[in-house]
Amino acid sequence: MKKFYAGGAGLIIIGVVIALIVYRSNTREEELHYEREETRFFLANLSGANVNLYKAGRNLEDSVIMPDFKSDGMWLPRGNYFLKVEQGDKTSFYPVPIFSYRSGPDKEGT
């Protein structure tokens, strides 16, 4: 019976250590996003349109396409961005201003 308690206690200690490591890792990741003033950006593209994200410049020619754009979520630093959405023969532009860390309108600032 003592071996069972010792084994159970060992497993609990290992579980607690792993939980602490994961917690510290997540906390450090959040600190980095805060320091870089980033906000998590998600895009729901239900229509299947061709969508590109751009870092805005002074005019359209100065804008820079974000080649690593992932609609399922990415962190964007503070700045002005816009989406260029092409569907059929129609092209639309949508502003995406990022103000600071977790400054988005949704829950948890996304």
Structure report:
This protein is of the alpha+beta class. 31% of the residues lie in helices and 31% in strands. It has one helix spanning 2-35; strands spanning 38-41, 50-55, 64-65, 74-77, 79-87, 90-98. β5 and β6 (90-98) form a beta hairpin. It is elongated, with a radius of gyration of 22 Å.
The residue ranges in which pLDDT falls below 50 over 5 or more consecutive positions are none
Mean pLDDT: 77
Strand order of the largest sheet: 3-2-5-6
Radius of gyration, CA atoms, in whole angstroms: 22 Å
How many separate helices? 1
Largest beta-sheet characterization: 4 strands, antiparallel
Global structural class: alpha+beta
What's the N-to-C terminus distance? 51 Å
- Give the tally of β-strands: 6
- Residues in β-strands, percent: 25-35%
Tell the overall outline. elongated
Helix content: 25-40%
Run of helices and strands: HEEEEEE
Short description:
The protein is of the alpha+beta class and 110 residues long. The chain has one helix and six strands.
Short descriptors:
110 residues, alpha+beta, four-stranded antiparallel β-sheet, elongated
Write the layout of secondary structure elements.
Layout: H1 2-35, E1 38-41, E2 50-55, E3 64-65, E4 74-77, E5 79-87, E6 90-98
